[in-house]
Design goal:
2 copies of one chain form a homodimer. In chain A, 40% of the residues lie in helices and 20% in strands. The first copy, chain A, is an alpha+beta fold and 440 residues long. In chain A, the strands form 3 sheets. Chain A has an 8-stranded mixed beta sheet. In chain A, strands 13-12-14-15-16 form a 5-stranded mixed beta sheet.
Chain lengths: 440, 440
């Protein structure tokens, strides 16, 4: 005999056992249905991509988190996908015949070797919906409206989407006069404004070699009231890219409102920066404010990504929902529907003894034929053990066929929650059960 | 600007574009529903496993096909899963609290670097259903009955499951008197009996260093009529493991018949060998005979696998459906339902002009609210271009709101297939559409 191998998971990864899978499936089901109601089509791409497809897209810090892969006798340098936007851009470049605008969604795992912590995993599902082939702010607005629909249907009460535009950030960089090499530090510092305040950001900028005078100039700008976009336009007079960014944001807000999004749910935040390097236009991040659980999803416009793979560049915008955090939060806050079952199984069919086995099997098969999820006992154990099994599994109903029942061509149907028992004919049992389950 | 990176897929991998995804989802939906009707629960395991979890499980030829993975700054030796049974065994060993029998299904990709060819991919989905914790042949029979249910519901007409038992093969090895080192060659040769005939197998065995006399002895044995299992029991008198194997097969057939499987669909084939090394008991392979497309699915009992990860060994049996081949075959043979849509989108809402944009957006949102999958045009193009788009996408219905319609608070609803147009009030359009779609 070989020695026992300790059964272990890779760091930061996990199994999802059946009961949790039912929660997960519920959330993914809601997301998928909303994506489709908004006209997005499913797409599947392989987990493995060529390394050259991923490299240079996410920035150097992100790139360190990529998992490489290689077939033991193969020559290709492969990597596990890091997100779903770069693979989408590759697909669009490879399939020019796709009708545009191309709206697709993909709900699939991605891999990032971040430091594991509560709620953060190295393999996690992203739910992405993107629109490729239009520069219209209607597309961005639709993404924002869709996120609201999803959060509302999942049961979140209060949330707000912060909006910014990469073009505004670019203008802000130009306005600051900082050398290009220092810009990433400027943006990173600015992104912390809400968390660490003006003085904190100023100190952070100094650490990033940005002169204090420049820091002050940028921070003064950010204190302009967001409500007064004309004041920003005035400041950006010499930086037309900033004015374009402001105009796009204004348009985006107007379109989102025309789609029924309430004004108070949209918040322009001209200091918000989002991590991924490929964004070029509006960026958005949705924060759940009641209960206060922070950012659940983000996205933005990335008009340059397809162009990295094809001479025919195409504008694109989209969102990525972090499903793992949503599931964790909903579990903690008891937000799942009360009738979400513990098991897929509707009914457990006991096997009374050897002589009655064939009858039990036939009943289980007829319940399945009728569309019910039925389990049957495999061995010959006392009824007590079988009922304990069904109870431990959380199966709601049990069918018992003893000698008396078999002789009378009936079965006993027991409700394991209430203990209530009724006798029904074999012909009726499927319909009786279906009605009980519908009512539950 | 950086140079354009040629957009390419890794060898043997592919994207699945939306229309194909709808076929795929249909097949996976049928499989998933039948799995659940038979009482299997969903499970998710990570794509990456520790190399030590996979190594030594599949045999040396298979092991060469594994993809290794590693985080760029990480220390763990990882690999992409090769099947779903070894991860299941790891899960069961790590979670002793799981109620037994534990019935789970998993529909997920696995990776094998086989030589790519038509219908064979290096990333492919397996649909696995397994039962852990019972030695009862009822469990094996249930797996066989379930496979039949799936194939029938997918529309396959004629199919047969070949059954053998690894214990019979072990007895056959003992009976042959061949040295253990030569046994794999013996089995591999024997497995080709149906393809290359008696003489072919004899030549093959000679090549595998098996004496001709032994080859003759084994081949004579395989010519015993399968219908007469007593003759086999007689030959295996001194090899009790063979008799046990025969008894199990007899029991399995009886149980499957009690579950409603027709006798002619079960075929005992005592020369069938299945590749994976971990099988220990009954093994099965289902072949579609009309149309003649060969093996679509296989499985078997593997009572030793959990024991490699835990002192508490547990018996297990299950099946693995090769979904890619099923989808390809159904596509070739036109087996998908005639009403399977080309797109998820039910209705396309045109945007007549800037003044009517807000109305179109509101209508699209109200259709979505009503549960319909609706798309709206993002730009301001002529109606002709918008209708051509909807037609190219295969969207069945279009909503048009021009100045006349807007004034009368109605919309024009056009059926793109028939060209038929009706006017309905804005309040009615969702219900009218739902009825049309139901009827289609």
């Amino acid at each position: 005999m070989t020695a026992i191998i300790e059964p272990r998971l890779p760091r930061g990864m996990r199994d999802i056992l059946p009961q949790k899978m039912l929660q997960r499936r519920y959330v993914i089901g809601v997301v998928e249905r909303v994506f489709e109601r908004f006209g997005f089509e499913p797409l599947q791409t392989p987990v493995l991509e060529l390394q050259q497809t991923l490299s240079g897209k996410y920035g150097p810090d992100a790139e360190k988190l990529i998992y490489d892969a290689r077939h033991r006798e193969g020559k290709e340098d492969l990597a596990l996908r890091y997100d779903l936007s770069v693979p989408l851009s590759r697909v669009v470049a490879m399939n020019p015949e796709l009708v545009k605008p191309f709206k697709r969604y993909q709900i699939a795992p991605v891999w990032r070797a971040e430091r594991p912590q509560k709620g953060r995993y190295r393999e996690f599902f992203q739910c992405d919906a993107d629109i490729v082939g239009t520069s219209s702010m209607l597309a961005d607005a639709e993404i924002v409206a869709m996120i609201f629909t999803i959060l509302r249907e999942l049961g979140f009460k209060e949330f707000v989407t912060k909006l910014n535009n990469r073009q505004v950030l670019t203008a802000l960089g130009e306005y600051s006069g900082v050398a290009p090499a220092l810009l990433p530090g400027l943006y990173r510092s600015l992104d912390k404004l809400e968390k660490i305040g003006r003085d904190g950001v100023r100190a952070e900028m100094l650490k990033n070699e940005i002169p204090d005078e420049t820091a002050k100039k940028v921070l003064d700008l950010t204190e302009l009231p967001v409500a007064d976009l004309n004041a920003w336009r005035e400041k950006f007079r010499e930086y037309p890219i900033g004015i374009q960014g402001i105009n796009e944001l204004e348009e985006l807000v107007q379109f989102a409102r025309e789609m029924g999004v309430q004004a108070e749910r949209l918040q322009i935040d001209l200091t918000m920066v989002r991590g991924l390097e490929y964004y070029t236009g509006p960026i958005f991040e949705t924060v759940v404010t009641e209960p206060k659980i922070g950012s659940l999803t983000g996205g933005g416009r990335y008009d340059g990504l397809v162009g990295l793979f094809s001479k025919n560049s195409l504008p694109a915008t989209g969102t990525s929902l972090g499903i793992e955090r949503i599931i964790d939060v909903m579990d903690e806050l008891n937000m799942f529907p009360a009738n979400l079952p513990k098991t897929v199984v509707d009914v457990f069919v006991t096997v009374f003894d050897v002589a009655r086995r064939a009858t039990s099997l036939a009943i289980a098969m007829s319940l399945r034929e009728a569309g019910l999820d039925a389990e049957v006992w495999y061995d010959f154990d006392g009824l007590g053990k079988q009922l304990r099994y069904a109870a431990a599994r959380g199966i709601p109903y049990v069918v018992i066929v003893g000698p008396d029942e078999a002789a009378a061509n009936v079965v006993t149907l027991r409700d394991l929650k209430t203990g209530e028992q009724i006798q029904v004919t074999r012909g009726e049992v499927a319909n009786v059960l279906k009605k009980k389950i519908e009512r539950a």
